[in-house]
Write the structure tokens for this entry.
Amino acid sequence: MAVKLKEWASERVPLRLSLIDYIQEPVPDHLNNFWYAMGATPLILFIMLATTGILMTFYYVPTPEGAYESVRNITYGVYLGWFIRGVHKISVNLMIFTLLLHMIRVFITRGYRKPGEFKWLIGALVLFTTLGLAFTGYSLAYDQISYWGSVVVTNMVGQMPVIGKPLVLLLRGGEEVTGLTLLRLYDLHTKLLPLVIVGLITAHILIIRVVGFAKIEGGGGEHPFYPDHALKTTAIAIGLLIIIVNLVAIFPPAVGQPANPQEVASNVAPPWYFSAIYKWITIVPREAGLFGVMLFFAVLTVYPFLDTFFSDRGIKMGRVNIVAGSVAVSAFATLTLWQVLG
């Protein structure tokens, strides 16, 4: 069994060259098409997130008494603090959106097929970790909306089958959302989750360079990673920065009313990236809905192996993916809009 596992892993991560050789290895010409080059976009956005996040930690105070005032000070008192916070806020939303687009593209084109299963697995973990970072960061503002939004999300977590109760106690540090919860979310957001996502992104990039990019029909040419592809990635980064700067100028960040645990916010709602899940569990029985969400994420994570299993039995998985992907995207968009607009 150990020998078989070693052979299976070596087929998917064939370490035969030095690290520099892998980095300098040419990339396929189809990456000139932006549809196939969206993987670099979340990385660029994460760099923006990390930079602005580090700057804000110099002023943020992770206590119930100081969190709201420190966010208010960053937004209205610190020189260009509103801009740094705005870039941070918009970057995380764009990172989640582009990660979803990237996974949809890989799913539709079946870019996860052998030997790319590890790329998909790590990519799924990057998405889940990014959602964790987004939620913990959203909760740190400690105004009415973010406080009660964190209550709603952690309530959802607590009702998950089997793992829900211990997980919510771990997040909250007790039965209720308190100052201890804020401190734990801060530690997750600024320490543990950043380390996890940096490790995952590094592993994802290395595996892509080792295994290579997924082949597409009609593509066979290559071009140098440096300077050709590196310059294109730089152009994408500049374009993203221009877009984000304009969005921050048009939609500057604001601060709501201070958190009041005794008064439920009237317009409380989870962030848009959790809106579909929230709406789903409100229109079906709660436990069944959460079990369905867990099952969906489990299937999504191991989908490359399901594809291989069904393909070996003659099922046209390319057509299956187009149908399944269209249904999933339509359901996500419908539930999200239903929650946000309803």
Notes: The first strand starts at residue 27 and ends at 28. The mean pLDDT is 86. The chain is about 70% helix and 0% strand.
